[in-house]
Amino acid sequence: MEFNDSTIKKIRGLIVFAVIVVVAGWNYRSLFALAMKMVGFISPFLLGGVMAFILNVPMRRIEQLLPVKKDNKIRRPLSLCLTLVFVIGLLLLVIFVVLPQLIDTVISLQNSIPTFLAGIKEEAERLFVQNPEIADYINSIEIDWKSFLEKVVGFLSAGAGSVLSSTVSAALSIISGMTAFLIALVFAIYILLQKETLSRQIQKLMKAFLPEEVSLRTLEILTLVSETFSHFLTGQCMEAVILGSMFFLTLTAFGLPYGILIGVLIAFTALIPMFGAFIGCAIGAFLMLMVRPLDAFIFLIIFFVLQQVEGNFIYPHVVGNSVGLPSIWVLVAVTIGGSAMGIVGMLIFIPLCSVVYAILREIVNERLEKQRSLKTKNKK
Questions:
Q1: Banded model confidence at residue 127, pLDDT cuts 50, 70, 90
Q2: CA 180 – CA 133 distance, rounded (Å)
Q3: Among 368, 240, 243, 231, which Cα is nearest to 303's?
Q4: Most buried residue among 74, 215, 317, 375 by CB atoms closer than 10 A?
Q5: Measured between alpha carbons, how far is residue 8 from residues 12, 22, 170, 209, 221 in Å?
Q6: 313 CA to centre of own chain
Q7: For residue 69, what are the contacts with CB-CB under 8 A and spacing of at least 6?
């Protein structure tokens, strides 16, 4: 091994890299805390990037449908305004459709919950009459009410100051969150208005500091990630609308209450992949249980039937096909993502696994093609 300038530079680089790895491993907690602090600083801009990515999906479609020439300067601002009007109008429509139902539900619950509790009380009294040993056991339980009240008073007196401080901190958190949201929205609007310019600047930056092959490959992967996440978002929204409509039509056909409310609720919770609809199921079953327990039982049967249809046919085909991921790997991605990062992991891991699946498929096909070409050469 010759110790020329190139070899010495490589050895020096390896030594520096090893020192950095050792120092980072020794101080990983401090580095992690610093990274979290930096993420907190740039979180409004990260949120703005996510908002821009989501809004770009309908905006791109609206821009294609506009009867305006591509070189017209008003095309982009007009499409952005129409996108914001569409999103805000959709949210307001849902609110105004659901709000009357929600008010009626709250009013009916005020009457049905006392009736439900009275029924439970009657059943409990009947149970105690038929089983006197249960009543004797409950009567034998002694509670030191004086000591209990002293503990409650001590807890309340100690917690009065903390309640005030937590109220102030909660108000400050709300103000901070609103400020961060407004910054993120403005940043998202700037990104959407100048997305081509930003794309060209990023490409120039990569070409200036990275080798050409690495730059091209990175751009290909970023394009694949963007398309996959866009298709996943579209498929997820389509699946949520289909599932919410199925529940609304089915509950209306069976004459069950809260059809619109449960349909919209399940449509929103269905945005959480595969398992989100169970949240809507729990709320819907509770609402019907307060009115008529038999309706809740019928609703659970309808839910599990529609959930089987959705889980086995609609979701894997609508969302799985939109991201190019087979049905079995959709289930694997949702399970792993949910275990690792909860709801956010479920939303991220499906398109992420789709990107990995596409890259791995390309690599495998290239290697198999090389093996076939080598076998062909050897035969000749």
A1: low
A2: 61
A3: 243
A4: 215
A5: 6, 21, 58, 23, 35
A6: 22
A7: 75
Q: Is 349 exposed, middle or buried (0-12, 13-18, 19+ CB in 10 A)?
A: buried
Phi, psi of 272 (to 5 degrees): -80, 120
Calculate mean pLDDT across residues 307-334.
70
Decide: helix, strand or coil at residue 73: coil
Average pLDDT over residues 116-131: 65
Q: Are 191 and 198 in contact (CB under 8 A)?
A: yes
Query: Angle at which helices 212-253 and 195-209 pack, to 10 degrees?
Result: 140
Q: What pLDDT is attached to residue 337? A: 75
Spatial separation of the C-alpha atoms in residues 203 and 197, rounded to whole Å = 10
Cα 215 from Cα 213, distance rounded (Å): 5
CA-based nearest residue to 102, from 302, 283, 307? 283
CA distances from 118 to 81, 121, 280, 285, 297 (A): 54, 5, 27, 19, 20
Residue whose token pair is 């105690």: 128
Separation CA 322–CA 228 (nearest Å): 8
Helix/strand/coil (H/E/C) assignment for every residue in the chain: CCCCHHHHHHHHHHHHHHHHHHHHHHCHHHHHHHHHHHHHHHHHHHHHHHHHHHHHHHHHHHHHHCCCCCCCCCHHHHHHHHHHHHHHHHHHHHHHHHHHHHHHHHHHHHHHHHHHHHHHHHHHHHHHHHCHHHHHHHHHCCCCHHHHHHHHHHHHHHHHHHHHHHHHHHHHHHHHHHHHHHHHHHHHHHHHHCHHHHHHHHHHHHHHHCCHHHHHHHHHHHHHHHHHHHHHHHHHHHHHHHHHHHHHHHHHHCCCCCHHHHHHHHHHHCCCCCCCHHHHHHHHHHHHHHHCHHHHHHHHHHHHHHHHHHHHHHHHHHHHHHHCCCHHHHHHHHHHHHHHHHHHHHHHHHHHHHHHHHHHHHHHHHHHHHHHHHHHHHHC
